[in-house]
Amino acid sequence: MLTDIEIARNTKMKRISEVAASLSITDDEIEPHGHYKAKLSENLFERVSDTPGGKLILVTAINPTPAGEGKTTTSVGLAQGMYKIGRKAVLALREPSLGPVFGVKGGAAGGGYAQVIPMEDINLHFTGDMHAITSANNLLCALLDNHIQQGNALGIDPRRVQLKRCLDMNDRALRSVVIGLGGKVDGTPRQDGFIITVASEVMAILCLADDLTDLKKRLGNILTAYNYDSKPVFARDLKAVGAMASLLKDAIKPNLVQTLEGTPAIIHGGPFANIAHGCNSVRATKLALGLGDYVITEAGFGSDLGAEKFFDIKCRSAGLKPDCAVLVATIRALKYNGKIPKGELSSENLDALKKGAVNLSVHIENMKKFGVPVVVAINRFHTDTDAELDFLKTYCSDLGAKFALSEVFAKGGEGGAELARVVCDTVENEKSEFKPLYDLNLSIKEKLGVIAREIYRADGVIFTVPAEKAISEIETLGFGNLPVCVAKTQYSLSDDPAKLGNPKGFVITVRDVKLSAGAGFIVALTGDIMTLPGLPKIPASENIDISANGEITGLF
């Protein structure tokens, strides 16, 4: 069996100008980065911005497990499947972070015969967007510390700096550090820390900004610190906006690549859904809607995280109206939710499947609460038995959910044709009555209560003393009407990763709350979630190598 990278390498890619031409994009509207990837110009955005929009399809999933659900693979395969049945589709995905690539999860370019390519470039440096975001964030940090060093005219309280440095790598040793040691010329000593780039507010801003003007406004609204009088100090007060935006002038442009079958794919932005809002950029999605009849996008992790944030933050902010949600589920993952060890998931076990299927039912109900039609994509593995597949199909039918078998990993677009037909039928015959889950005029606590009750099925929310204080401060500043972005474990509907299936009798603990005024949301940190992940005992990087002729191996 060929590995993902071998499959990708054996594919004859189209020149990026040919991929662009399939969407009626001219050579003057792309900025090539080599032969097979390109930035999309502002001229293109202006040209298609008034074009009647295509149909927007969100791909989400049940809670992820070590068994894997294949959400990105399904997204890619669905787009390829659309072309197989004669529909013009555009894929709109996030960029992978180097943290997971070298850590546990590996790359995020799909898998098998449903991949975006060139997968090595996409999974590594791509067009440099991640580095630009890292540089812009860290420039702001440097300007803040320099301001304190050079007389501190704004009276910034070093104990109340809200901003953290970032890097696009899993490095637990940098979660909490002390800077400014060494002497007077080395700055003012204070406690600091790093977060991963994809959790930074600059990343969220890039993904939610409408254009360069909006980007600058949002950058200026970043809360960097409080002064000694407990007044906020924003990035604009540090005169950082122009320089930061200059570093992001190319990063704000979406990237065009292709799938293994030549389907156009726009990949841009990469926030994690467990610690950020988990969606690709608004600009990429709007471009795709102006270029294709169907747009396939995804939101990270399960519907309790990525999809909820897609609906309540991204769609609300950008005025998007999704037409359908595709919910990816696997028999292996549902059996895992039924408390079967990972090593036993290849054996038929209907009892475990029946117990774990409750996780699927919750996610179906979650999507319906937003008024969006739902299609379940049963991502088939070769170990799935006919009896297990029959049970899951009946289970979906009994819940009133449409479903389709997806075999895109093994068969590419042909394996996604059935799913594509069901999705198109749903979009064309079921009207979306999309609505956000909560009213922005609710208090921060009330909004968190709605999410906890309606999406997680929690009995309530507990707020620690620091969280209570932060909420009071945010509301006093006048930002209480923003949507909330919950940072929570992806492995459970609760904030405890060990609680699988559909846990009962639990509460969500909010340990801290942060204001992301530039991004336009409030971050609530729950459980033990980390904003800078660590590497596992055996990181994926140990299997990655490059030959003398430049061929990369071990990347997946």
Describe the overall structure.
It is a single chain. This protein is of the alpha/beta class and 556 residues long. 36% of the residues lie in helices and 19% in strands. It has 19 helices and 25 strands. Strands 1, 2, 3, 4, 5, 6, 14, 15, 16, 17, 18 and 19 form a twelve-stranded mixed β-sheet that branches. Strands 20-22-23-21 form a four-stranded mixed β-sheet. α7 (129-149) runs antiparallel to α10. The longest helix has 21 residues, at 129-149. The two termini are 14 Å apart. The model has no long low-confidence stretch (mean pLDDT 95).
Short description:
By secondary structure, the protein is an alpha/beta fold. It is built from 19 helices and 25 strands.
**What's the number of helices?**
19
* Large-scale geometry: globular
Helix content: 25-40%
Strand proportion: 15-25%
Mean pLDDT: 95
Strand segment count: 25
- Runs in which pLDDT lies below 50 for 5 or more consecutive residues are none
Structural class: alpha/beta
End-to-end CA span? 14 Å
Quick one: biggest sheet? 12 strands, mixed
Rg from Cα: 23 Å
